[in-house]
């Protein structure tokens, strides 16, 4: 084999190692983000549902439109 062929063989091996490590880290980070997003959505929804029943129109709005 010539030097050019050896270079690409080594490059491919190193790139595959780097890519597999990157994908493992990215996958674990994405799992954490998805869990956080789900928990945030649940908590936000529960607060909105609890507060929604207490909402009422502002009585001053009627006065101002008259």
Main attributes?
66 residues, 86% helix
Explain how this protein is built.
The structure is a single chain. By secondary structure, the protein is mainly alpha-helical. Helix content is 86%, strand content 0%. The protein is rod-shaped, with a radius of gyration of 28 Å. The N and C termini lie far apart (91 Å).
Topology:
Layout: H1 3-52, H2 59-65
Please report the number of helical segments.
Answer: 2
Going by helix content, strand content and strand pairing, the class is: mainly alpha
Strand composition percent:
under 5%
* Unreliable stretches covering 5 or more consecutive residues: none
Q: Based on CA inertia axes, which overall geometry fits? A: rod-shaped
Order of helices and strands: HH
Number of beta strands: 0
Task: Supply Rg.
Answer: 28 Å
Average pLDDT, rounded to a whole number, is 86
Helix fraction, binned, reads: over 70%
In quaternary terms, these chains amount to: single chain
Give the end-to-end Cα distance, rounded to a whole number of Å.
Answer: 91 Å
Largest sheet: none
